[in-house]
């Protein structure tokens, strides 16, 4: 069962993702609400996949993704963005993120993306 780390500063968005994945084959091992927490959680949990929000306080998702990928080149990160953040999504993909999902989340799209990235 693949382990997931969910990173988003909005508790509501973390809950939304957890609820979408509740009856799936994924195990949510941790949550973080900013980039610094995401890096710490990644180091301690070594999840199979991370969903990473782009816009967060303390440290944004793009910086956190770059830091995680710098330390763990095989990390699988899916960026989560609101409309209008295309440039940051492109930067994240160039930095090594595997995919992106757009908010508001579409349950089918989220599961498809996670399934696809986990098989990479």
UniProtKB/TrEMBL annotation:
InterPro entries: CheY-like_superfamily, Sig_transdc_resp-reg_receiver, ST_Response_Regulator. Keywords: Phosphoprotein. PROSITE patterns: RESPONSE_REGULATORY. The modification 4-aspartylphosphate is found at residue 53. Residues 3-118 form the Response regulatory domain. PANTHER family: TWO-COMPONENT RESPONSE REGULATOR (PTHR43228), TWO-COMPONENT RESPONSE REGULATOR ARR22 (PTHR43228:SF1). This is Response regulator. It comes from Jeotgalibacillus marinus.
